[in-house]
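== Fold encoding ==
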Amino acid sequence: MLICDLNCDMGEGIGNDEAIMPYITSANISCGFHAGNGDTIRESIALALRHNVRIGAHPSFRDKENFGRKEMHLDPDKLYAIVLEQLIKMDLIAKEKGAKLYHVKPHGALYNIAAKDAGIAGTIALAIKDFNEDLVLYGLSNSCLISEGKALGLQTANEVFADRTYQKDGSLTPRSHNNALIEDEEQCLQQVMQMITKGTVTTTSGKIIPIAADTICIHGDGKYAVSFAKKIFEALKQPSPETI
């Protein structure tokens, strides 16, 4: 068993799901709004079941053109409706495959906005609670997704990122910045082990800030996603003094 949950976004058409799945413990499966469709959801669930990986819904804005990474501003009722629609779709297919949903992790722009906006985070959390209050809400560590989820009585998981850099306020460096992505294997592993063993992360400015790490994310569309997943899996399974 790994000493920390390791999650990855799946069913997004990247082509490496089968290679990554053996090294993770939770899969965030695209619900079809930013990528994928019913067939890819079924394939991802079947793959997760084969490897005993927890199955989660990965809802987003309806935005395949921009892979769900374009900010949209919806009124609360509309936002509630699109989150609920995706949860219902994912749950129906999961039941069809004899599987059970474990968690929900918003995707892309929806995730980033909700991390900072308590109102949006609260709407997402309410949709989850009304649908199934036993689902775990994955959100950026110490963000509004976590606080609003807890306020509604949901189980939450503080998420940290293996392949993204951090700003001094605990937010992720925007993808528009040159230093947003971590593409060096050793830098990736060092950041992961620092976060889960010391409860801190070193920001792009060099400042060390506190962080809570319940689950670690690897982006499936990352250039080195498979090698990162394997390296982190091995470190979390048998951490050595050298890696810690």
